[in-house]
């Protein structure tokens, strides 16, 4: 079966940076399950998978603009510690999600100086080319419930 919008796809993948270092992989685990065309993958990978068949393998290089984005210095901000009440002791490298006017965003603490905290709202892989090796394991029609909920149910997906 061919990968197209509203189909459930299970893939095994390995993600490497330009130096060949493995950043993430499903090897030795369950395949990643997603619904094609619902923005569950970075745009470049979803586009590269469109039209592929069950059993296909591909190597694809995704430019930052089609991956986790180009680094935006406007997403770096300094805020007073008091504005992050309930976060516990703030340390460099900590990550947390916060609601922004653009929806939920992951922030990384990049510095804590005095009572000020520097937060970076760029994805940790922003500005990086993403090199994927992918094996398409299974392709099937999504159920009405999966389409309504926006995620895969059952094996490799979400369990209610």
3D shape: elongated
Q: How many strands?
A: 9
Helix-strand sequence: EEEHEEEEEEH
Look at the structure and give the mean pLDDT: 92
Estimated share of beta-strand residues: 35-45%
* CATH hierarchy class name of the largest domain: Alpha Beta
Q: Assembly type of the shown chains? A: single chain
- Mind telling me which CATH architecture of the largest domain this is? Roll
Stretches where pLDDT is under 50 for at least 5 consecutive residues are: none
Q: Radius of gyration in whole Å, from Cα?
A: 18 Å
Measured as a percent range, the helix fraction is under 10%
Number of H/I helices? 2
Major sheet description: 5 strands, antiparallel
Structural class: mainly beta
How many domain units?
Answer: 2
Cα separation of the termini: 27 Å
The CATH topology of the largest domain is what? Chitinase A, domain 3
Could you characterize the architecture of this molecule?
- This protein is mostly beta strands and about 160 residues long.
- The protein has 2 domains: about 5-70 and about 125-150, Chitinase A, domain 3 (Roll); about 75-120, Thrombin, subunit H.
- The protein has 2 helices and 9 strands; from the N terminus they run E-E-E-H-E-E-E-E-E-E-H.
- It has helices at about 45-50, 145-150, and strands at about 5-15, 20-25, 30-35, 55-60, 75-80, 95-100, 105-115, 115-120, 130-140.
- Strands 1, 2, 3, 4 and 9 form a 5-stranded antiparallel β-sheet that branches. The chain has a 4-stranded antiparallel β-sheet with strand order 5-8-7-6, with no helix packed on it.
- It is elongated and about 55 Å long.
- The model has no long low-confidence stretch (mean pLDDT about 90).
């Amino acid at each position: 079966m061919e990968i197209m919008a509203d189909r459930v796809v299970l893939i095994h993948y390995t993600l490497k940076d330009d130096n060949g270092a493995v950043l993430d992989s499903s090897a030795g685990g369950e395949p990643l399950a997603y619904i094609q065309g619902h923005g569950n993958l970075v745009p470049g990978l979803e586009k590269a998978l469109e039209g592929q068949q069950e059993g296909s393998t591909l190597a694809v290089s995704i430019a930052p603009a089609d991956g986790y984005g180009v680094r935006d210095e406007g997403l770096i901000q300094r805020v007073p510690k008091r504005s992050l009440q309930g976060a516990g002791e703030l340390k460099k490298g900590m990550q947390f999600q916060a609601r922004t006017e653009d929806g939920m965003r992951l922030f990384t603490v990049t510095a804590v100086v005095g009572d000020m905290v520097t937060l970076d709202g760029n994805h940790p892989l922003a500005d990086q080319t993403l090199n994927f090796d992918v094996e398409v394991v299974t392709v099937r029609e999504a159920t009405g419930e999966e389409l309504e909920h926006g995620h895969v149910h059952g094996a490799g997906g979400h369990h209610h």
